[in-house]
Design goal:
Distance between the termini: 56 Å
Strand order of the largest sheet: 1-2
Strand content: under 5%
Helix content: 55-70%
Oligomer: single chain
Number of helices: 21
Shape: globular
Length: 508
């Protein structure tokens, strides 16, 4: 192992102190203020089968004290909410091995939504709404709950970036407005994706705080948050590979230095595994009750090809690709690459007549960042692998490549790393004077603004039926984004604020 990476596996002092420059108190206040002002934009509405499945867990456990979802499915079907092709056949006719109605979702969202649902229960009783688990306060509870968890994912992402000595304030705003997270916080919040972003962000945050010495309490916390993450979305369990790799490298370095020092960590690892098992127990019990075995319904396995034949398409397909829906994702990944591959021997100053190397200001911090960034890239790669392995990789009919919303915290770190590199770019004139280069930051700002606008424009096109919901048509989408939408903007804003139901009258 290179000497600089060995520096990253030494005890507590290996983690550099957070950047005292950010975010400032004013930035925190601004971020919270923006979120509070945005709450009226949340749409408290359930309309898709995925949303119904996640909601059914909460309503059935809360009111019926069971995991029999037939009455929940029938409720939405009778009201014309769940009339998509195949809904009745899949959820009201088919049964599992234990004679229960199918549910392909997991229980994690119900657990996260439950505090909001409790408030709804109290409000329903005091304000004379029906205390049935379906009335307006209950639907609003899960919608606003998801919005809160999406925002908390951004807060945790900022704290993760700070742990790496990076200011994540502006990157968090970019991720908020420039990725599908925005859609699943405000337009379709009862999906699992905002909760997924929170679960993964919490896991990454805990990992970055326990990785110095991998103590028993730290590994217990990591195991518990890993279980929560996996209960929200099963594929999010693959994020555990990053910390596992990190721990493996740490243990290997310790093994070379002093094999006896690893003995106490055996108990710590077992404690972390036990914590995972305890926290994951509700999901394990759910699997047994619904499917008769530990694991999702058998039909799910038939949808997976673990050779990942669609790994490139899920990124680059003009009609469905992640980088086409969300170009800023490519920027974020580039930032992680910058973080993991610094110039050999130090950073570079850009000169008028060439470049010269300067030593890194903190070799320990540099090694720490490189190692973490490498693990983050492994996490990204595994999500691409899983996304390319699913039969329904196109996620046609949904907004964006929504399975990648779990990457929110990692994307914020990538944006922050690229922004930091742009900020540090300097030039030197003929007499040796240095000056900060303005153009890298200007270019990055322009790219961020365009990426945010593209995302918000696609949300508008998707919501009002201006685009084909089954696929992207980049040229047409771009024309509508920059020509059609500006003409329609005043009426769309008015309808969204004062007549939001008009967007749904024709199934849009």
């Amino acid at each position: 192992m290179p000497p600089d990476l060995l520096l990253a596996v030494t005890p507590p002092s290996a983690t550099p102190p957070p950047d005292p420059a950010g975010p400032t108190r004013r930035q925190w206040i601004l971020l919270v203020g923006l979120f509070l002002l945005s709450l009226p934009a949340v749409t408290p509405r359930i309309y898709s089968s995925d949303e119904i499945q996640y909601f059914a867990y909460l309503r059935s456990a809360w009111f019926d004290h069971d995991l029999s979802f037939e009455n929940e499915y029938q409720y939405f079907y009778d009201r014309g909410i769940a009339r998509s092709e195949g809904f009745h056949d899949t959820f009201l006719e088919r049964t599992t091995a234990t004679n229960r109605r199918l549910n392909f979702g997991t229980i994690g969202c119900a657990i996260l939504w439950s505090p909001f649902y409790l408030v709804a229960d109290v409000l329903a009783a005091t304000n004379r709404w029906e205390v049935d688990g379906f009335s307006k306060p209950y639907i609003a509870a899960v919608a606003y709950g998801s919005a809160v968890y999406g925002f908390l994912a951004l807060v945790l992402a900022i704290l993760c970036a700070r742990r790496l000595g990076l200011n994540g304030f502006y990157p968090a705003v970019v991720a908020w407005m420039g990725t599908p997270l925005f859609f699943y916080m405000y337009v379709a919040p009862p999906f699992s994706h905002a909760c997924s972003a929170f679960g993964v962000a919490l896991f990454v945050y805990v990992w970055l705080h326990v990785r110095d010495i991998w103590s028993t309490p730290g590994l217990v916390a990591l195991g518990a948050t890993a279980a929560l993450m996996a209960m929200v979305r099963e594929q999010d369990a693959f994020f555990a590979a990053g910390p596992a790799l990190d721990f493996g490298l740490w243990a290997l370095a310790r093994l070379r230095q002093n094999p006896a020092s690893l003995k106490p960590r055996v108990f710590s690892v077992l404690a972390g595994i036990a914590a995972f098992a305890v926290v994951f127990a509700p999901q394990a019990a759910t699997y047994l009750v619904l499917n008769g075995h530990l694991g999702p319904h058998s039909s799910v396995q038939h949808k997976m090809n673990w050779l990942a034949p669609h790994a490139l398409e899920v990124l680059l397909s003009p009609e469905h690709g992640f980088f086409i829906w969300t170009p800023l994702a490519l920027v974020a990944i580039a930032g992680l690459v910058v973080l993991v591959l610094p110039p050999k021997g130090g950073s570079h100053e850009i000169l008028s007549g060439g470049s010269r190397k300067t030593p890194p200001p903190n070799p320990v911090a540099s090694a720490f960042r490189r190692k973490v960034a490498g693990c983050l890239l492994v996490m990204v790669a595994l999500q691409i692998y899983v996304g390319g392995s699913v039969e329904s990789w196109t996620v046609a009919g949904a907004f964006g490549q929504r399975r990648f919303i779990a990457l929110t915290a990692i994307m914020v770190i990538g944006f922050a790393a690229l922004g930091d590199a742009a900020r540090r770019a300097r030039s030197r004139d003929a007499v040796g004077r240095t000056a900060t280069l303005a153009w890298p930051r200007a270019v990055l700002t322009m790219v961020a603004v365009l990426g945010m606008y593209w995302n918000l424009a696609l949300i508008a096109e998707f919501s009002i039926g201006l685009m084909d919901r089954q696929k992207l048509e980049p040229r047409k989408n771009a024309y509508d984004a920059f020509v059609t939408l500006p003409r329609l903007a005043p009426s769309l804003v008015y309808r969204y604020l004062f007549d939001r139901a008009s967007f749904y009258k024709h199934g849009s």
